[in-house]
């Protein structure tokens, strides 16, 4: 899977969250919880995924591309997201 992203957003994410967008290649898509992010009209279909990376739950916002995904946002999941994920897994 091809992972693309805006290099400037990646730099900000590394500075703020110590999490490079390229780590999305290690995100566990198999056990992730997916939903369409329809909070706004983005002009494209964006997905929110809650899944594991290094045994910690993370939130990944992305757009599907022909060859993979384009990362919009990537961070550790908050407590509300952890509860939603755990409820869906039970």
Q: With helices defined by DSSP (H or I, 4 residues minimum), what is the helix count?
A: 2
Mean pLDDT: 97
Rg, rounded, reads 13 Å
Oligomer: single chain
**Can you tell me the CATH class?**
Alpha Beta
The CATH architecture term is: Roll
The total domain count is 1
Q: Looking at CATH, which topology would you report?
A: Nuclear Transport Factor 2, Chain: A
Helix/strand order, N-terminal first: EHEEEEH
Strand order in space, largest sheet: 1-5-4-3-2
**Which residue ranges are poorly predicted, with pLDDT under 50 across at least 5 consecutive positions?**
none
Write structural notes for this entry:
There is one protein chain. With 90 residues, the protein is α+β, with helices and mostly antiparallel strands. It has a single domain (2-89), classed as Ribonuclease toxin, BrnT, of type II toxin-antitoxin system (Nuclear Transport Factor 2, Chain: A). Helix content is 24%, strand content 37%. It has two helices and five strands, in the order E-H-E-E-E-E-H. The chain has helices at residues 7-17, 79-89; strands at residues 2-5, 33-36, 47-53, 56-64, 68-76. The protein has a five-stranded mixed sheet. Strand 4 and strand 5 (68-76) form a beta hairpin. The chain is globular and about 35 Å long. The termini are far apart. The mean pLDDT is 97.
Task: Jot down its keywords.
five-stranded mixed beta sheet; 90 residues; alpha+beta; 37% strand; Nuclear Transport Factor 2, Chain: A
């Amino acid at each position: 899977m091809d992972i693309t992203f805006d290099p400037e957003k990646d730099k900000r994410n590394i500075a703020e969250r110590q999490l490079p967008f390229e780590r999305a290649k290690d995100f566990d898509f198999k056990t992730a919880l997916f939903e369409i992010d329809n909070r706004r009209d983005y002009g494209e279909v964006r997905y929110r995924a809650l899944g594991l990376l290094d045994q910690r739950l993370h939130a990944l916002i992305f757009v599907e591309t022909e060859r993979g995904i384009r990362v919009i946002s990537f961070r550790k999941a908050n407590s509300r997201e952890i509860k939603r994920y755990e409820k869906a897994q039970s």
